[in-house]
Amino acid sequence: MAEKSETIIEVKNAKKIYRMGIERICAVDNVSFTIQRGEFCCLYGASGSGKSTLLNLMAGIEKLTSGQIKIKGKNINRMSENGLAKFRQNNLGFVFQSYNLLSSMTALENVEMPLVFKHIKPKIRRKMAKDILVKVGLGSRMKHKPTEMSGGQQQRVGIARAFVGNPEIVFADEPTGNLDSKTSKEVMDLIKELARINQLTIVMVTHDRRLAEYADKIIHIFDGKVENIEIIEKKETNSNPNEVDLRADSKEDGPVIDLLQDQPVTG
Ligand code: ADP
Ligand code: MG
Q1: How many CB atoms lie within 10 A of CB 236?
Q2: Domain 38-52+90-231 in this protein, CATH class
Q3: pTM of the predicted model, to two decimals?
Q4: Distance 31 CA to ligand 1 centre (A)
Q5: Residue 249 has pLDDT above 60, yes or no
C-alpha cells in the first residue's frame, strides 16, 4: 500500500521554555524526530513529561523557544499568524480530551463548523458532515446537542469534526482520557480505521501503554526529552479494507463506518 515513505513532520532540536516569574520550565528539551506520511504515531510518557506541549508545538498552537518544526516541508514557525491559521485549516484536524464541542449546537452543526471556516457551500458541507456522522455511527444522533449524548458519542462527534475536511494530519491529545475502557477501545478503533482508510497521519498523546500500542511508532517522552523511539511490529491482519469488520463497535447506531465508501470530498 504505502510505497515509499515520505516525511510529513520533521521536528529538529525543538525546545520550549516556559517562564514562571523567575523560574524557567523546560517543557520540551531539544527534541528531534520525524513522522512519515500515513503513520500512526504516539507521544507516550508520564503526566508532566511535556507531551501536550510538544503536540501543541507541532500543531502551531504554541511557539517554539528554539529549533524548527516542518510540516509538509514548510517551516511552521516562520509562518505569519494568518498563514498558520490557513495552513491549519487546510491540513490539520484536532481531537481533544474534553471534546470541545459547542454546547448550543447540534452534532451536525458542530461537524459542519470547520467547513464553514473553509467557505464550503452550505449544501455541500451539510452532506459532508452527514456522511461522516453516519460513518462514525451517529446517523441517528445528528440533531442531538452535546448534553444529549454520552461521552463516547460526543467524542465520535469530535472525531467526525476532525476528519470531515479530510485533513492530512490529525492531532489528538488524550482523546479517550475521559472515557471508560470499553468506549476508549471503540474510539481508538474508529480513529485508527478512519486514518487507515484515508491514509492520514495521526499524532496522538497518551500516558496509557495499551492505547500507545495502537500506533506504528511510539515516541517515549521523559522529562521533556525523547527517551526512545519504538517501532511496533504489525501483525498484518487486515491489508484488505473489505475484510475489516467494525460491527462490534456500532452498538446503538448501525454501521460505524462504510468501508467501501471512498474518501470524503476535499474542499
Ligand atoms: P504532559 O502533557 O506530558 O502531561 P505538559 O506538556 O502539559 O505535560 O507539561 C510539561 C511541563 O510544562 C509541566 O511541568 C507543566 O507544568 C509545564 N507547563 C505546561 N504548560 C505550561 C504553561 N502554559 N506555563 C508554564 N508551564 C507549563
Ligand atoms: Mg497533557
Answers
A1: 6
A2: alpha beta
A3: 0.88
A4: 15
A5: no
